[in-house]
Amino acid sequence: MSPDGKRAEPGDSLVRASDADRDRTVEVLAAASAEGRLSLEEYSQRSEAALVARTLGDLASLTADLPTAPDGAAPDRDVAVASGEITASGEITAVLGNESRKGSWVVPPHLAVRSVLGDCHLEMQQAVIGQQVTTIDATVRFGTVTVFVPDGTDVRMTGRTVLGAKSSEVRGEPRPGAPVIVVRCDVICGSVTVRRPDWLMRRRASRAGDGSG
Fold first, then answer.
1. Does residue 126 share a domain with residue 39?
2. Is residue 12 pLDDT above 70, yes or no?
3. Which of 1, 131, 140, 155 could join 76 in a cystine, given CB atoms 3.0 to 4.6 angstroms apart?
């Protein structure tokens, strides 16, 4: 089977994989992990292999023992797009500056975040997340990306760091049915951090919830 769930032709296994093919495979793996079909260790190993896969055959081998969605659809992405409110992908870029998303913003299934000598802050504790699995591609060059999520969120971090760091500071075990946040890192001289909101963010969220100014 090819990464999009369609049966491949005999020669398809040698076809070079695209970034979109790799993205779909990681989404399938993340969904399978969220359903308990893969352990966290299996998910980590397979997703790392997917990110460096060269051919469709390499990708197909990573999902050969997993069920596919009807008609080869990626369920979470399709449901989100069908809602009419959530786009399939989004992009946030900070170059020599700061960029942030906060409050009740809509999180797409796939988000590309790029920080070059900049600082990106994504506050997801009040965000609208319409899909089970959200993939964040964080590319950092001499900058930082910080993602704020509530405790109990299912956070999966993969990717490489060179003279940098990637870390999750979220506390406790994931809540049953919690959204899965897959953060794929490509960091050189920078950092990607997933952490819980600080007291000021929680106070702001509380005021927004009770309607006070």
1. no
2. no
3. 131
